[in-house]
Design a protein that fits this description.
Number of strands: 12
Structural class: alpha+beta
Bound molecules: adenosine-5'-diphosphate, ligand 2JD
CATH architecture of the largest domain: 2-Layer Sandwich
Distance between the termini: 17 Å
CATH topology of the largest domain: Ribosomal Protein S5, domain 2
Largest sheet: 8 strands, mixed
CATH class of the largest domain: Alpha Beta
Shape: globular
Length: about 290
Amino acid sequence: MKNELSVFVPSHITGFFEIIQNSNPLLKGSKGAGITLDEGVVTNTKIKDGNGNIIINVNNKEDSLNTISKKTVKIILDRYNVNIQDYDIYINHDSKLPIGAGFGTSAAFALGISFTLPKLMGINISFKEAGEIAHLAEISQSSGLGDVISEMFGGCVIRLNEGSPVKGIIDKIPITKPIYVITKTIGLLETKDIIENPIHQKHINQSGSILLNRLINNPSISNFMKLSRKFANDTQLISKEIAEIINILDEETLGASMAMLGNTAFALSYSPDTTIDNPIITKINTKGIEYK
Ligand SMILES: Nc1ncnc2c1ncn2[C@@H]1O[C@H](COP(=O)(O)OP(=O)(O)O)[C@@H](O)[C@H]1O
Ligand SMILES: CC(C)(COP(=O)(O)O)[C@@H](O)C(=O)O
C-alpha cells in the first residue's frame, strides 16, 4: 500500500455570506458566494508503522498554532477507530498565501488532511465524506463556515445551502475566459472573533441574506463583485486602509472588495496589471481539489 499522498486544495475568498446557526455541526455553516484560486495549499501526508508520533508542518517548519490540522487528524482517528499508536504521521502543508487573511487556508489545511490521511490508512472514503470531515473540523474551531465545499469544487461558487458538503448544494457562475485575481494583504483577522460576535453576526446576516438572492437572480462576475463590495460596506468590517486599496483596485479592474474574513483587498480582472505594490496575483481556479 502507498505510504505517501499529495493533494492540491485551492484557496477561497468569500465575497459575502450569511451565518446559519445549528447545534448540529453537520447542519451549521454559511450560505454565500466566493471565488477559488489557483494558489492554494499542497498537502503531503506520509504514514509509517510507528509509535503515535504526529508532526504537522507548514512550508517544512513545525507549526504549533495549526490547531485546525490537529483537530482534523483527531476527527479521522476517532471516526474510523484508528489506533494512533500503530502509526507515525508526518503532514506538510505548502502554501505561499498568508494564514488568517481571508484565503480559507484553514479549510484547505483540513481538506488536505481529510483527502490524504484516511486513504493512506486503507479507509474507503468518498469525496463528500472527506469534505464532511473538513467541515466538522472547521465548525469545531470556528475557523470557517463555508470554505470547504467551495474549495472541493472550484470556480466562482454560490453556496445555496449551509452545512456539510454531503448535503451541500452549489451553483457556479460560468467563467468563459481566464480571470486574474489581484490581492493585497495588510494584516490578519481572526475569523472566530468575528463569527462568534453577536453584533457582527447581526450585521453579516442582515446584509448577506439579501445579497444572495440578488446574485441568484443575476449570476455574473461583475454582479458578484458589486454585491461583495456592498457587503463589506454594510457589515462595517472594512478598515480605512483596506477601503483605500479597494478604491484604487476598483478603478483598474472589473471590481474590488474585501476578502471575508481577512485584512485583504481583492479584485477581479482580465489583466494582471495593477499599480498596487507587492500584490499576490493568481487566477480563478476552475478544477477544485486535485491529487498530485
Ligand atoms: N501560523 C499560524 N498562525 C495562525 N493560525 C494558524 C497558523 N497555522 C495554522 N493556523 C490555523 O489556521 C487558522 C486560521 O484560520 P482563519 O482565521 O480562518 O484563517 P483563513 O482566513 O486563512 O482561513 C487558525 O484557526 C489555526 O488553526
Ligand atoms: C467567511 C468565512 C466565515 C471565513 O473565511 P476565512 O476567514 O477565509 O476562513 C467562510 O468560511 C464562509 O463561510 O464564507
